[in-house]
Specification:
Blueprint (H helix, E strand, L loop, with lengths): L20 E3 L3 E4 L2 H12 L4 H15 L9 E7 L5 E6 L35 H12 L4 H14 L1 E2 L2 H7 L3 H4 L2 H7 L11 E2 L2 H13 L3 H4 L1 H12 L6 H6 L3 E3 L2 E5 L2 E5 L6 H12 L12 H21 L10 H4 L2 H8 L25 E8 L5 E9 L7 E2 L4 E2 L40 E5 L2 E6 L6 H14 L5 H6 L3 E2 L7 E4 L5 H9 L4 E4 L6 E6 L2 E6 L6 E4 L1
Parallel strand pairs: 17-18
Antiparallel strand pairs: 1-20, 2-10, 2-21, 3-4, 3-11, 4-7, 5-6, 8-9, 9-14, 10-11, 12-13, 14-15, 15-19, 16-17, 19-20
Length: 553
């Protein structure tokens, strides 16, 4: 038996910092090390990939509070060893009292209530979503899988440099007494190596361990959340919690250069974005210019620009609106969109409209990937949206609540916290799920899983996953190189090409500016957690931008 685990190494320019982590039978890759190790232990004990995914998700609610959660929501993509696949949508929902213009002031301008505080939270879906996956496709008991999270919350976790950095001078958490008490140490900020105990959260896990997942939605936990909401002008009621339901959907499918692509359907825009953009490149030899070259970056950025124009116009929760999804991901439409790309000159976004007619870079999301010894693969992206969500910890529960209501269209034509423009299709309605960019993805080759991947990063998630696929398929990088390689992002509006501040030479930037791109340098884009399955076994790669771990056996 071989257990592989490598320490975080600083990212180097234009190459992997280390080799991918090998394993013989199974692998978990997650942004937080203890969660990855717990997932690995579940696999070693005979659990399948869904079992491990549930344990990882619950553990990260304790060990990775900036994004891991039971107070948010997300997506789980499953590809079974027998070739079947499915998708669990546990995205948050708007409360029953939500209204279309609830975040506009008397002058019709958007307020910050969609981002900060009690009214920013959608009805959480993580607990019921993971429970649905376990009940239908897992093999282990719920109590067994959540027990490690409860024990860690009781004993406490050692505060890491990343946690110190994200909690330091955190004004959002300071505004709410429970959050300040727990996560800011009562105002005496945590230092590296300190112990963070989450006793209220441990009691919440103990209740769920004893009473099952419905405790969160119908039991004492639900009553505590609803009571705190009512006392602070929040919208989520006990009825909202009782009524929450995850949805099982068909994964969005596409193909690219011999690979089958499985990804997230609406209410995510991510899967459609990846499939559409890959198809726009299918007939192109853009990659001949080389990875990281100005010519290749220009071509890919123009593809990104066109998809995000479509995203702004058409996407929303298909349980509530009709959208031309089949046409948007069709090969014919992709060729039509690609034909408008000038290989030498950027097209101003003001001249790029939706192709079918009218119709801070990291949010705090996280991703983990799992492959078990039977060949089942799970790709999970889940989120609080912003860093530590809305800043609110529901009194008596220890649960950080999301600020996913900002992912709706608060005001058409006004950008959200990520600078995205969105349409009436994504307007607020009771029980509706906000549009997402989360893009858990699995690539299949010759009927077998080849890659499992995903990333956090708000709207950059889509382009991060897309570029990682290009690095693997078109540029023939090994897994760690593909995950670590410098990244860029164009989202149509604002009309700027965002490039990570390392890894791109001044000459490359200058050549892109000469093509008409407005360049904005950013510190970091995404944190990919990926697994490769090949004839020799498995390889895992945790992004060097993270404190993550690839743990296999």
């Amino acid at each position: 038996m071989r257990i592989a685990a490598l320490a975080l190494i600083p990212l180097l320019v234009h190459g992997a910092t280390r080799a991918p982590v090998p394993a013989d039978r199974a692998m978990v890759v997650a942004a937080e090390r203890q969660a990855a190790e717990i997932g690995r232990r579940v696999l070693q004990s005979g659990g399948n990939a869904v079992d491990a995914a549930v344990a990882v998700g619950m553990t990260m609610a304790v060990t990775y509070p900036l994004a891991g959660n039971i107070g948010g929501g997300g997506f789980m993509l499953i590809r079974f060893a027998d070739g079947r696949s499915t998708f669990i949508d546990f995205r948050e929902m708007a409360p029953g009292a939500a209204t279309r213009d609830m975040y506009l002031d008397a002058d019709g301008e958007a307020t910050d209530e969609s981002v900060i505080g009690y009214r920013a939270a959608g009805v959480p879906g993580t607990v019921r979503g993971l429970a649905m996956a376990l009940e239908k496709y897992g093999t282990k008991r719920w109590a067994e899988l959540i027990r490690p999270a409860r024990r860690l919350a009781e004993r406490g976790i050692t505060v890491t440099p990343l946690t110190v950095a994200t909690l330091s001078d955190n004004h959002r958490l300071e505004r709410f007494a429970e959050s300040k008490r727990i996560f800011l140490n009562g105002g005496d900020y945590f230092r590296r190596g300190d112990l963070l105990r989450q006793r209220d959260l441990a009691r919440t896990f103990r209740r769920m361990e004893k009473n099952g997942p419905d405790e969160f939605y119908t039991g004492e936990t639900a009553r505590l959340i609803a009571r705190d909401m009512a006392a602070n002008n929040g919208l989520i009621t006990l009825e909202d919690l009782n009524a929450y339901e995850p949805k099982e959907r068909r994964p969005l499918e596409g193909d690219y250069r011999g690979y089958q692509v499985l990804s997230a359907p609406p209410p995510s825009s991510g899967g459609a974005g990846v499939v559409q953009m890959l198809r726009m490149l299918e007939d192109s030899d853009y990659f001949q210019a080389g990875a990281g070259s100005a010519a290749a970056i220009h071509h890919v950025a123009e593809v990104q620009r066109r998809f995000f124009a479509d995203r702004a116009a058409y996407f929303g929760d298909t349980d509530f609106i009709e959208m031309p999804l089949d046409e948007l991901v069709s090969a014919a439409y992709a060729r039509k969109r690609a034909s408008t790309i000038d290989p030498e000159k950027a097209t101003p976004s003001s001249e790029v409209s939706a192709g079918l007619g009218d119709g801070k870079m990291d949010g705090e999301t996280t991703h983990y990937s799992v492959v078990d010894a039977m060949g089942n693969a799970v790709s999970v992206t889940y989120t609080l949206n912003g860093l530590y969500g809305s800043g609110v910890t529901a009194a008596g529960t220890g649960i950080l609540l999301n600020n996913e209501m900002d992912d709706f269209t608060a005001k058409p034509g006004a950008p959200n916290m990520f600078g995205l423009l969105q349409s009436e299709n994504n307007a607020i309605e009771p029980r509706k799920r906000p549009l997402s960019a989360m893009t858990p993805t699995i690539l299949v080759k010759d009927g077998k899983v080849a890659y499992v991947l995903g990333s956090p990063g708000g709207p950059t998630i889509i382009n991060t996953v897309f570029e990682t696929i290009l690095n693997l398929v078109d540029f023939n990088m090994d897994l760690q190189q593909a995950v670590d390689f410098p990244r860029f992002h164009h989202q149509w509006m604002p009309d700027e090409l965002r490039m990570e501040s390392y890894g791109f030479s001044p000459d490359t930037v200058r050549l892109l500016e000469e093509r008409g791109h407005t360049i904005r340098r950013v510190n970091r884009q995404g944190r990919v957690m990926a697994i490769e399955v090949n004839e020799d076994g498995l390889l895992g790669a945790a992004d060097a931008r993270s404190e993550g771990l690839a743990a296999g056996y």
